[in-house]
Amino acid sequence: MSTHYFSDTIVLTGRTLRHVTRSLDTIITTAITPIAMMLLFVYVFGGAIDTGSVRYIDYMLPGILLITIASGVSYTAFRLFTDMKSGVFERLESMPIARSGLLWAHVLTSLVANLISLAIVVGVAVLMGFRSGAAVPAWLAVAGILFLFILALTWIAVIPGLSATSVEGASAFSYPLIFLPFISSAFVPTETMPGPVRWFAEQQPVTSIVNAIRALFAGGPAGDDSWIALAWCVGILVVAYGFAMLTYRRKTS
């Protein structure tokens, strides 16, 4: 491994970030779908969904943020797949730089791009009436949960990005991730769901993450949901990282 691992990663991250800044349509596209969903649910379905005293835009925003991330990481898989097929990794192996530097560059680029998309979505939500009574520590806690969620999904995206045989295969993995919030507490209370669906919705990770973020936005205690959300994010991150690095070693050995 190169003794200048961090500097190599920074340089390679600059390269992948330039690709993103030269095609800002990827960030815009990532934000457009969640924004369209937000408009649809708030202005079309919102009136028919009972969320008690909580305004629907405040209720459903956490789920929209998770969908934004799931949509964004599909581009990470696409960019990684493109680099694999174009021979970039092979060329880097002949240079005195860290072999996994490019992999980490894609992960860091995913973080930056997704944070920008999230900022756009939150900005539109504010224009639609979203308000939060959260103090600075609560906002930092939300940022921390979203940061871990981005990392976890990004490392999942690395696996198809390295192993897929087509562009469609590299990006298709994100479809279940985008769909998962719909079977959770993100858009409707789980109490309204039939038995088996309710059980699945209450046990899967998105519900605890959404509930934790919703409680933090409301300025109240997140309770056990915050610790369950953190456990899910960290657990998914560790497992995904392990499989991603195993896939990387097989592809570059």
UniProtKB/TrEMBL annotation:
Transmembrane segments: 27-49, 61-81, 102-130, 136-158, 170-188, 227-248
Main location: membrane
GO CC field: ATP-binding cassette (ABC) transporter complex
Keyword vocabulary terms for this entry: Antibiotic resistance, Cell membrane, Membrane, Transmembrane, Transmembrane helix, Transport
Keyword Transferase attributed: no
GO molecular-function terms, A-Z: ABC-type transporter activity
Recorded topology in the membrane: Multi-pass membrane protein
GO BP: any one term: response to antibiotic
Top-level taxon in the UniProt lineage: Bacteria
Residue span(s) of domain ABC transmembrane type-2: 25-251
Xref: InterPro entries: ABC2_TM, ABC2_TM_bact-type, ABC_2_transport, Nod_factor_ABC_transporter
Record localization: Cell membrane; Membrane
UniProt similarity note: Belongs to the ABC-2 integral membrane protein family.
Name this polypeptide is given: Transport permease protein
